[in-house]
Amino acid sequence: MVKKIVTRFIIAKKKGRKKGVFYKSPRIYLSTKLTDDSSFPFKENDRVLVKIQGKKLIIEKYGSKIEKAKRKNS
CA-CA distances (angstroms) from residue 66 to 8, 69, 70? Predict the structure, then answer.
């Protein structure tokens, strides 16, 4: 079981649709050693909530219960 990894934060530069325009695409790479582990809490296409607390980046599943309640009340 992999509980932690050291990785990198990078900012890829992508070409925009207009000539000479570039935009930044921030990325955090997660090794498949981590993501393929059975204890990894996310599945492909899961919605996640990302927040900053002090000097930490917190990533959580985005509340499906909240989404269902919003849809029900709409």
Answer: 32, 5, 6
